[in-house]
TrEMBL record:
SUPFAM superfamilies: Dihydrofolate reductase-like. It comes from the Bacteria. This is Dihydrofolate reductase family protein. Residues 3-182 form the Bacterial bifunctional deaminase-reductase C-terminal domain.
Length: 206
């Protein structure tokens, strides 16, 4: 049965993205600070279909595991708009459901990625993603507001956080406005690394 998961990098002070986000400034220009551990891994570049990366270590193992377990994605319109102009073709290799008020026909890419634009809320997106996932997990890709919506609705089963050893000082916090009484949270795994600390949590709805 599909689990609802997210897998996100944040700063030590809890920021998921920087200020002044736009298609010309994805994630507020902080990707290198938050995700350098990932960019160093060959597994990440393999996923993009190009050569790159300096290492193929334990960090790469977690990248491959997350890719393998994911059968469908859900994201917000803002994240989609930031990525649409620069993402390579067939990046996600699965169906992607975009939460938006915009009515738009599905964007079918070469390969196995199709973007569907959902106008009637997170439950509708989740129902459709379950059908696409075929028993694999559904990953709430972002941005932070979309992850917060799923958390506050009590719909998340598990998440993996990668804490980069940097302070951003301002930006968009991943856990802003979260209902603190929604879940019983258990630490499943703590994995130290050179450029990040991986933390896996299991959630049980109270």
């Amino acid at each position: 049965m599909s689990k609802i998961i997210f897998d996100s990098g944040i700063s030590l002070d809890g920021y998921f993205a920087g200020d002044h986000r736009s298609p010309n400034n994805p994630m507020g220009g902080v990707s290198d600070k938050l995700h350098q551990w990932m960019f160093n891994q060959k597994a990440f570049w393999e996923y993009l279909g190009v050569e790159g990366g300096k290492e193929d270590g334990h960090d790469g193992k977690y990248i491959r595991e997350t890719i393998e377990r994911t059968g469908a994605f859900i994201m917000g319109k803002r994240m989609f708009e930031e990525g649409e102009v620069s993402w390579p073709n067939d990046l996600y290799k699965a169906d992607v459901y975009v939460l938006t008020h915009e009515e738009r026909e599905p964007w079918v890419q070469e390969g196995t990625t199709t973007f569907y634009f959902i106008n009637d809320g997170i439950e509708s997106a989740l129902d459709k993603a379950r059908q696409s996932a075929k028993g694999k997990d559904i990953r709430i890709q972002g941005g932070a507001n979309t992850i917060q919506q799923f958390l506050n609705a009590g719909l998340v089963d598990e998440f993996l956080i990668h804490i980069a050893p940097v302070f951003l000082g301002s930006g968009i916090r991943l856990f802003e406005g979260i209902d603190k009484d929604r879940y019983d949270i258990q630490i499943e795994e703590v994995i130290p690394s050179d450029l990040t600390t991986h933390l896996r949590y299991k959630l049980r709805k109270i």
